[in-house]
Each structure stands twice: as structure tokens, then as C-alpha cells.
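# step 3/5: fold
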Amino acid sequence: MKPTREHLTGLVLAGGRGMRMGGVDKGLQTLHGEPLAAHVLKRLAPQCGALLISANRHAETYATLGAPFSATIVADTLPGFPGPLAGLLAGLRSARSAYLLSAPCDTPGLPTDLAAHLAHAMDTNLADIATVTTTDAQGEVSLHPVFALLRTTLADDLAAFLDAGERKVRAWYARHKTVEVSFTDERAFYNINSLQELSDLERA
């Protein structure tokens, strides 16, 4: 059965350390007067039946940010900021739906049809995970693994993977039937890694 909006819980991944931004909470940095995470929430909300925000700092601020979307705040159960897989696990454990749609907090231009394309590919390929690729002008393909649609039944396997000390997203995906979905607009998946990049985008 093809996943539809009511079967999807959206997850905004905002639990990182923001090291390339000097340790600031990336999702709370503003673009055009609004926190980056708010831009992502606005684009995910119409695509999902419920919303979660993965945040390991400033939970109250994120709760206020997510309130207009009835978003729930979840935190890593593993110590030490172990990476995006820990955020995914928190989302998979907390979702009350069959599928989880994840996106990072620093991608304010993510596609409004992200869920539709990933759900179609997942259904067509009978996959457990659908994720994103783009191709640049030189023909180089890039994988954007934290943009993903996942079956929430994968939670136990991911927990075991993390308990074994593993941290690489692609290595975990390789354990399951994963389909890569090509999107034509690579700019939609542009993520902001530094305060300079944020400043540049503000002026664009």
C-alpha cells in the first residue's frame, strides 16, 4: 500500500552539535526573520499527518516553535550526540504511524512534494527506505541520506545497529531494501553548514 499523508510522521532533525557553525544550535539560526527549523516545519507539515522535532538542546524553544504545528519534541536516548541515526531512532520510536519522513533542520528549501515522490518509489520498489539523490551540472550524483522515508518497524534493527557502536547512515541503509529517488532541483536540498552560508542565503 502506498503511504499517504495520514500514514506519515514528519521528523525535523535538529539534534546536532552545529560544530561547523561554531557550536550554535543550527535549527534556531534565523533566515528572513524565522528560525531555520520553522522553514522546514512549514514545508513538511502539509505532507505529514503528525510532526516531531529531534532536539537535544533548547527543548522549550523548539516546543514553542513546533506548537503551531502540534509538533512533539523528542531527544536522543544515546549520550554524546552520536549523529543523525540517533535522531532517526528517537523519531521511529515516537511515531504513531507506519512511516517516518525525515529532513534536516538546515534545509529551508526542501521540496513540497518530497513525501509524494519517496512514497511512490517505496511502493513501486517494495522498499523499506526511500532516500534522495541529486545530479549537478557536471553529472555528479550526490546522496542526501537524511532526507528519507522509512518504515517505523525498522526501529529495533536501528537500535541494535547503534548499540553495536555503528554510526554511519549509509551502512545502516545497506542492511535494508533501500531505493534512491532522483530529484532534479539540487538547490532544494542545499543545507546550510556555516554562518557565512546562512548570511549569503539571507542576501540572495
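# step 4/5: annotate
The longest strand covers residues 141-151.
# step 5/5: archive (pending)
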